[in-house]
Fold this sequence. Notes:
By secondary structure, this protein is α+β, with helices and mostly antiparallel strands.
Amino acid sequence: MPSAGLEQGHLAAALETALRTFMVAVLLLLGAVVMVPEYTPRWLAIIAAVYVFAVPAWIANRRGRTQLASGIVVVALWTLITASSLTAGGLLSIACNFFAVLVLASCLLLGARAAVAAAIVSVVTASAFLAAAAAGWLPWQPLPYTLPMRWLGLMLLIAMTAGLVHLAARAIGDALGRSRDELAERRRAEAALQLAKQRSDDLINAIDGVVWEADAKTFAFTFVSAQAERLLGYPCSRWLSEPTFWRDHIHPDDRDAAVSYCVNSTAKLLTHDFEYRFMAADGRVVWLRDLVTVLADGGAPKTLRGIMVDITEHKRTDELFRAVVEDQTEMIVRWKPDGTRTFVNRAYSQVFGGRPEDFIGSSFMPLVAAEYREAVRAKIRSLTPEQPVATGIHESLGPNGGIRWQEWSDRGIFDVDGRLVELQSTGRDITERKRADEALRTSAEQLRALSARLQSMREEEGQRIAREIHDELGGALTGLQWDLRSIDTTLSTLDQRAELDRTRERISGMLELIDSTVFTVKRISADLRPALLDDVGLVAAIQWHVQQFQSRTGIVCDCETALETADLDPEPANAVFRICQEILTNVLRHAEATRVRVQIRQEDGCFVLEVDDNGRGITEDESRGARSLGLLGMRERALLMGGDVVIRGAAGQGTTVVARVPVAHAMIPGSTSSRSPVI
């Protein structure tokens, strides 16, 4: 164990000084060789023994093993003192006086217990010397202690004592230093403790709430902060002196519930918080929120610590909020992340059938249609402090098991650590809107189907009319034309030139009119239903129409294609041809173009018609305008066939129109490619 008198570092330094002193002092025995030469071997043996013990102790001390060095020194002293006394006459020898040095060295080097042990060993050794001397067992006679010998022994004692005094002085200095340090440290600790207490008191009193401590069994308060008097008006002494003060001043309507809740939570060692009304000294009713921590001892509640916070203003705001929320026609609900509802307004309870209290404390998830529940959970997981709002639509179960469509906007409420602690949702019943949308969609599909049917009927009617015009009216005009030519030939062989010439002029005029009528019939027939579309197919019909357009308008047209035929049914083929007609008509009317390029190709399972012109270029507003009925008609035709029309243009750079129709198109419900009789 370390020395009671010296610190470890000081002990090593002092021990080294003492060892040096002893090793120098023992050289005084060389004087005894001169004074008592007959005992020269004894003196030299003592000097050698001192060095035999001192040198290892010095080495051990230099290597930091101070305790081992101290033990060697103490054992060496006892051995040398005992041996010297035994060979110099026992108790009558001067060496016995050095047992005091042994006790003092043990105390300084190894502590009080070692000193007591050294004293006991010294007494036992001296007693042994006395008994041995009385029995005549000592073979050696006392040395002749002449004055020089006594002076030499005294010098040796003084030298050794000086070394021990040096150790004692260092020990006393260390003790005084430690005492001063301990006193200063104690003063600093007391000052820090006082400062900490002052800070704690200031902190507790600065908290906008009542910090308190109470017995867990009796609820008698053992501490209450000064805020209690400011907040509730009662002096702190009443809280501490009246065991039932807290119970007695809870509002009568809340007393039983508040006390019962606190008792049950305390028995279960649960940290808990609850709200109740408290009667202030001036008669005010103060709403408190009490946050309580239970401290246990041996598994049983021992102490309660908590803080009471005034939430009166919050309650008033909450009541105002509830009043505003209750007047809303939209559903409003607050709930925990697990779906447990904490508040619902009147509109919510009316939609789902019940009273507001019927929904508090239970999850809303069973009211969500099963196929939408995972989507609702995913929406909750997506909320973050940076994006706290999410909106979704899902089906919910009504009070009678009916399905209602609802749209909900959820706002997440997060704590300071970014954890989702609560959500507030606003919902509206959109069942009627959904039904209206569905009806509108169905109506649109029906209108589109009707449009397709009407388009088909119109094409069929045009085809029938074209055929009748071509076959009947065209045939009749052709027959009339032949008859008139036959009459003209007959009349040319008769006399009466003047009358015949007038008749032939009239017949010539009639023939020209018939030719013009036949051309008009052919043109109308072609416009209604080009015969080439049925005879040679879509690609050849488009090429023919492009050539006719160039002949009529003078606009240079290039028609490029690698296709010979198009793998399209009659109805989509007719739609593409009509789109081509409409595109070229728009070029003539609006583009101010001098050149048109038409490309026909098949790619990605679609028949593609692309028309480019070098005109003024269509604008975005023109391409999307509600009055662009021609463009709308093209898009509608393509849509009916499962395709689309894309129009691009730039001012001064012309216009490009790309029409795509699937080769194996999906017919719009209600449309048909079969021919039906005209009604």
